[in-house]
Amino acid sequence: MWRWVRQQLGFDPPHQSDTRTIYIANRFPQYGHYTPQKFIDNRIISSKYTVWNFVPKNLFEQFRRVANFYFLIIFLVQLMIDTPTSPVTSGLPLFFVITVTAIKQGYEDWLRHISDNEVNGAPVYVVRSGGLVTTRSKNIRVGDIVRVAKNEIFPADLVLLSSDRLDGSCHVTTASLDGETNLKTHVAVPETAVLQTVANLDTLIAVVECQQPEADLYRFMGRMTITQQMEEIVRPLGPESLLLRGARLKNTKEIFGVAVYTGMETKMALNYKSKSQKRSAVEKSMNTFLIIYLIILISEAIISTILKYTWQAEEKWDEPWYNQKTEHQRNSSKILKFISDFLAFLVLYNFIIPISLYVTVELQKFLGSFFIGWDLDLYHEESDEKAQVNTSDLNEELGQVEYVFTDKTGTLTENEMQFRECSINGTKYQEINGRLVSEGPTPDSSEGNLSYLTSLSHVNNLSHLAAGSSFRTSPENGTELIKEHDLFFKAVSLCHTVQISSVQTDSIGDGPWQSSFAPAQLEYYASSPDEKALVEAAARFGIVFVGNSGEIMEVKTLGKLERYKLLHILEFDPDRRRMSVIVQAPSGEKLLFVKGAESSILPECIGGEIEKTKIHVDEFALKGLRTLCMAYRQFTSKEYEEINRRLFEARTALQQREEKLAGVFQFIEKDLILLGATAVEDKLQDKVRETIEALRMAGIKVWVLTGDKHETAVSVSLSCGHFHRTMNILELLNQKSDSECAEKLGQLARRIREDHVIQHGLVVDGTSLSLALREHEKLFMDVCRHCSAVMCCRMAPLQKAKVIRLIKISPEKPITLAIGDGANDVSMIQEAHVGIGIMGKEGRQAARNSDYAIARFKFLSKLLFVHGHFYYIRIATLVQYFFYKNVCFITPQFLYQFYCLFSQQTLYDSVYLTLYNICFTSLPILIYSLLEQHIDPHVLQNKPTLYRDISKNRQLSMKTFLYWTTLGFSHAFIFFFGSYFLIGKDTSLLGNGQMFGNWTFGTLVFTVMVITVTAKMALETHFWTWINHLVTWGSILFYFVFSLFYGGILWPFLSSQNMYFVFIQLLSSGSAWFAIILMVFTCLFLDIVKKVFDRQFHPTNIEKAQMEEDKGSVSSAYEFAESKHRGEDSGHLLAEACSQQDSCCTH
Predict the structure, then answer these.
(1) Which of 372, 498, 669, 935 has an alpha carbon 20 to 30 Å from 607's alpha carbon atom?
(2) pLDDT at 47 over 80
(3) Is residue 281 part of a domain?
(4) In total, how many domains does the chain have?
């Protein structure tokens, strides 16, 4: 029972076994004492609370905030001891803040519950008791056989058993999981693939052993043991066997699968991202200011307590005749009395800590984040994508960025690959108008001019080729050349994971190389744009990948269909940086085709034109093209048997499977024969150069982190403006040891000191970076800090995150921003202070795991220079203003104690204490923090240098904080002493001859304060809308109307009403009105004088831009008026001319 209660409260998740053994259809062994493992049900729970734990869990989370916990303590103190103010003064604001936050969070969670119930109640088909039964998704158990039809979503993580196809394959799309829209092929093991009916599946006796649930979408290790005729058959299970919850079945009528992970243990559920725990610089400043004000509060309470006892040292003040102590008070402990008095003063001054600050900041961030999504300038029409905000906690951090770390492919570039050039057996070709053009001399062409290479189509023998083709060759060497090109493009057509959506392929590939390829008939889908571009290029040149049927890959060559049996796929991984396929050719040969980065292919090659190809690859890279090398290897029967055995052992291993597979892959992918290299172009996105230049003008350093080789990366950097021609480019490449790396870094540091150039750029590769980060972090950082642009190439995903981490923890602690579009960018996006995902073609993982998502890199400039600038200025003013108005509020309370013998008498009525922050002064600052535009957005975007004025948290510096605090104290002194000296001793203020009393005096101070702090907000506002006018002047009007009603009526539910008729009498006094106007003017006059003086003699860049904008507005208005005036004059002249003409005609 206790465990169930803990589980319901969310503190004790169900126990997870170390291993997972699943009996298909839950047919457990009948012998022995077998205890079935317990697995969770298939409920998806995205909600945070339940009916049972909402109140305790929500309260616990809210009271973790310092301000809420502080006010709770104050409220409890007011309940326990005799304090000068009612517990309501602290309890009501606290209750309001807690209730508003709880309602907001409860409503959001209620919506999640509704969504969960829809998902969990969806109907599904399950095989039970030899038949197909309908049940709800939440009732699926681990081990159940589930039927899924075409276009349906998989309700749990299933291991594929069979499909409507004989080979047991099916196609799925995982767009909802990772954004990849390509069709992925999954296959069943042969023994279960033939079980295509419910009756046949009911006879299946099998056990699945697999790893524990983990979040990695692309990793799954297991094995299936099938019992057939008393014989056990073991088959490996990998990612190709697992159908993930959330994916959708495509191009397949139906499948059957066994549930292995259910509910919150599915990979989709494990990938649910909790709210970002990143904290902005503003929030950290808020906490610092809060501590300072807490120290001020405690100091005021201690001073008041000490002065009270100092004053009461005289007997006449300790026990005056009108306030005799009781016997109990005389005998009570002095220490306890001192503590009680200290706590009472603490309660009296506690409103110096603004409890409503947090709820106002939350509202400002939440509501303000909608402006990013609504901004049409951040909308991309082609992809129909608008900017997204995944967390609103970091809005103001967009205005503080000092470093931008960006991926290259898909972020700076379009990620739309076009085949441009290739190198085949040492000869370089480029595609021109759908034909391959050789740049070198052909065997019978000594002139060295460009010669055209056409397709192998319609060629059945060499003589036909020699006679009828424009590929000029001689009979004796023609066969060899044809074989080289044939093998190269076959490698391109077979070594990939491309899928085809159409089967209308009869007329494809039968024409010459320049193009009988019709994309309308044959459409390729690929997870990598590179693969798609290469397969399409091979099809244009006559070797067409037609599709695959189970283990058979079909390729059209020479106008005829060839079938290759796919034996093994050696998947791509970032460590190997290559992928391979092992196929059996129609002739029976076993061939390995390998494709990958030149750094991973060339070292493994023992044949082919290695040196020439390497030169060509470098030339391609200098043009900014993306390169891949192609190689092959032919196996003997004995070699293939050994490879097949090793692969089976590694793939069926449950322990260290990945390490064993890596070892086998390395054993296979060696002794290669190099075929050549491909080069594809990835175009730059629109306005990338302008955006990078604007970032540099704003004082932001841009680092490019990419996996490309350094020649390609440097070429793209130069073309996009990241590096420019006048920049001194430093290189840290191919370092082999720590000592070598340290020496090189020392040389670079000396060059930077000695070279008196304005800007330096640094290029560093992944291996050198690893050495630099291992032992020489400080030296590496010194070099980087003096470089205005840094390019890191050949980077692994974790290295990207390490680089950002290194910058974050450097002594300056700069604010970092990472932007990328692929799954390999997620680690750096999550590491940076602000993570931005590009909604590109490499999936949506980056966008899903980011704080903000945009469609194009160019939108980054407006996001930072406009939205970031506005958000920062707004929230910085909001925080400072809140502390200012609370100093104004409580300081008169402290000063008043000097005039009432520190008797803890309150200056304000309890209702005013309660409503000051909630009603009277809350709306103007909230609306300001949402709508303020202190300068035109176009000016901010066109003048990136203005971004420098707000960097390094300048608006929340200690100097600015002290100015606002000093301003608050000075205004408070004017409120209190102005009221005291102007009317405090005047006996004839009221019409009936009565003097001002305590409550009248306090109300006068409060009235001046409400008007002044509201008018101060008006002075800070530059961008006035009707909403600003409504809440600013409406707040003052509301205060007067409320006070008239509150003090003008005897309310029956109030036990005492000190304010009865006080406000009405105050307003009936002319002296009071004079005092209010004089004090408000005095407070604001000093502020206005300071503002005018600063703008005239020490203007900031922003203030200069404001004045230029104002002049522009005035001149525009003047020109408009002049043109209008000239138009009126012209109209008068024209009218007079017409009238004169009419009169002439009349005469």
Answers:
(1) 498
(2) no
(3) no
(4) 5
